[in-house]
Amino acid sequence: MAEGYDFLRFLFTKYSESEYLTEAWTPIHVVLKQFLQNSSENFQSMSYQTIYCQIYKSTCKGYKERLFDDLKKLIIEHCQNIKLQLDESMKRMIDDRSNRHKNIYILQFINYLHQFQRAIDVIAPLFHYLVSVFVFKI
Predict the structure, then answer these.
(1) Distance of alpha carbon 19 from alpha carbon 24, whole angstroms
(2) Domain with 56 in it: what CATH number?
(3) Residue 6 falls within a domain, yes or no?
(4) Sorting pLDDT into bands at 50, 70 and 90, what band is 131?
(5) Into how many domains does the chain fold?
């Protein structure tokens, strides 16, 4: 019976800052970026269960606020990068005043929107353990 308590003690022992960054956030961050960018470039394979367990452990160890803030920063950073790319396309479209660039811009926007929706559809269930209070902060 003592073994069960040792496991619970381990599970709920708070991470140090460096442990959070190396053991929890860095692997989660890499996978989330892959989801958001929807790319196979430098793909690091990690099972859904592994990611889910890391998020659950981080939540149990008292880092749900930090995890939520880091997730929010990552998504904001991704959206800002997309905005810059779309602004560049918009500038080319305005400079050239061609229908071809308008079509490219529209297709690019639709593509980014679909990529983002697919990424959010995968990311949202992973963060189930973040209390709904933090989800409604957005």
Answers:
(1) 7
(2) 1.20.1310
(3) no
(4) low
(5) 1
